[in-house]
Write the structure tokens for this entry.
Amino acid sequence: MAKSIMEDPKNRVCWACGAYAPEEHHVFYGVANRKKSEKYGLKVHLCSRCHRDNLDGVHGQNKKLDQKLKEAGQRTFEQIYGSREMFIQIFGKNYIQEDEKMNKVVLMGRLTRDPEVRYSQGERSMAIARYTLAVERRGRKSQDGNGQQADFINCIAFDKAGEFAEKYFRQGQRVLIAGRIQTGSYTNRDGQKVYTTDVIVDDQEFADSKGGQNGGGRQQQETPSDIGDGFMNIPDGVEDEGLPFN
Ligand SMILES: [Zn+2]
Ligand SMILES: [Zn+2]
């Protein structure tokens, strides 16, 4: 039996209210999730009221406490085991909702190259697509001292969104995405710490209108036939190298 990573394993006090609590609650429950909660130590003590009461219990109608616990569980998991990516891969869902309220990004830009895609290992293989958007700065005057006219923003799309990007996104296309900023760091081959800023994509669609028709397909819709597999027309003025702008 794994120890709890959310509290001192010797604790016998309710996580929610501090009352005496001999019962242990698996934060992610249901047949499959309970086992995973056990495996990763995502469990807390709850008093019988906070646990099983019809109104105040997590197994009753207290959805607020349930959500709070799941969010805390996911955060602890991410701190200990490393990443949100891994959590979502294992539990199949992101329980942290406040990110959406606090951290929201909308970008329209051109793909600097075809997405780079890899598939995660594990119980459920998941597509992880990385691409860079060149987002034009407002007004040509706003270029900096180096004459830079665009910002190059790294984006990461997971799972279904990743598969969609792999299948349909190609260099030079203009796309519209919504997501959130995620920062991180890793150590490179020279032993130096590198800080990263990426946009985690929640929603993406084509922003180019083809032949003056109403602009491109949404992810959920039918795929436009002209951007199927294989060859794709690069929009006018986009060269193989360099800035994808006219
Ligand atoms: Zn309690
Ligand atoms: Zn329980």
About this structure: The two ends are 62 Å apart (CA to CA). The pocket of zinc ion (ligand 1) is lined by residues 14, 16-17, 19, 46-47, 49-50 (CB under 6 Å).
